[in-house]
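Quick review question:
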């Protein structure tokens, strides 16, 4: 399993608790890197997805919570073409180069479903279709999993 835009490793930690082994992480934020270095001490950590050349051989799953600043109501709402959120295309570049891990998990804010009449979702689903994936998504609230906050996220499985 590979975690791109890993943050502090929430998706990766949950997946590891269900049998997935993390082979590589990528995160640009120094504070999050410090957490990842402790939480996943023996896992290679890359800092810049644009410089990551390839996924490790045998990668079966990629989890990617790509930057939401351009898609969030709290952000600039620049859309999927914004400098941060457009980095999702790096996920597709790496997957294309690998000729497709079996599974992709993509996470982001629910406003991406509305912003620009759903342009971000259309961009992502078009890319997934071009790569040969079928997909499904749900809007999930963290409260449903016992967390003490209302935090809705779009989770896509391809």
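Suggested answer, residue by residue:
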């Amino acid at each position: 399993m590979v975690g791109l835009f890993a943050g502090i490793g929430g998706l990766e930690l949950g997946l590891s608790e269900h049998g997935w082994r993390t082979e590589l992480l990528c995160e640009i934020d120094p504070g999050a890197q410090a957490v990842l270095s402790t939480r996943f001490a023996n896992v290679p950590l890359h800092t810049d997805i644009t410089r990551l050349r390839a996924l490790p051989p045998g990668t079966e799953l990629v989890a990617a919570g790509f930057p939401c600043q351009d898609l969030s109501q709290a952000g600039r709402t620049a859309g999927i073409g914004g400098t941060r959120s457009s980095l999702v295309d790096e996920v597709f570049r790496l997957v294309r180069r690998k000729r497709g891990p079996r599974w992709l998990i993509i996470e982001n804010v629910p406003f991406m479903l509305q912003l620009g009449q759903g342009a971000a979702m259309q961009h992502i689903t078009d890319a997934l279709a071009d790569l040969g994936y079928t997909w499904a998504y749900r809007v999930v609230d963290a409260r449903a999993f016992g967390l003490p906050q209302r935090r809705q996220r779009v989770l896509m499985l391809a």
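Why it works: The first strand starts at residue 2 and ends at 4. The radius of gyration is 15 Å.
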